[in-house]
Amino acid sequence: MPAERAVCHNAALRALEARASTYYTMLLEAKPAAQGKVYQDFRDGLQADRQKWQHDTRDACGAQVACLSDAYQHRIEDLRGNALEHLGLTVTAAPVHAQPSGPSIDYKNAIYRIDGKDVTLLDGQHSQPAADDSAQQEVTRVIEPPAHAVGKLGGRSAVAVFLSSQGGGSGTFYYVALAFNDGRGTTFQLGDRIQPIGIAINGDDLVVSYLDRKADEPMVVPPTVPRERHFAYMNEQILERPPAAAAAQ
To answer: Which of 29, 56, 91 marks a domain boundary?
Structure first.
């Protein structure tokens, strides 16, 4: 099906699928103190709800990456709420697709190297005058959702996240950023007025997906063209992998 193929070929969507599967399996494999009709009804309802969501919501998106990303984000929130509601249940089996615990890195309070300058974020944001004697502010901030990713790149524990920077003009520039446990980070500019979709760390591969425009489209046109780019971390920099190298990962 188009939706399943889109998820299969997009690393960020695969990461969302894994998070949703973790919550679903946790609820499905949890065991109450007494197993009776109420518990059986709960399990049956959980399975029926999953089938309905797949048919009515996920599959209705077809191969549209933005639609699928939004559908999975809402699905994760619904499953998370369900899990919180049933905290009395005890998980007796490790959920499949469980995500590894990430490093304790305060990526919202870090110093990022952006366009050759150090920018210090406090609680996920930095503001400064757009120019000398200007009343307008240049604002740099962490963008979530989509959620950040954790892992190791270049042998270092890292958190990967989207940043945006908006100054006195009409542009809003987006970056993929890495923060490390020394409180510093580095960035790579992705584009102007794009729409972030997902970010993932797969082994030594940093995968970023977003919506962009066609080369001949003006900036006033909403971004609709899916892009997926692959990066490595080398020599204290984020470096884009050439397409052939990315395909081999």
So the answer is: 91
In a domain, 178, yes or no: yes
Predicted structure pTM score: 0.61
Residue 149's nearest CA partner among 70, 209, 191 is 209
pLDDT in tens, 169-207: 778 999 999 999 999 999 999 999 999 988 999 889 999
| Pair (45, 145) in one structural domain | no
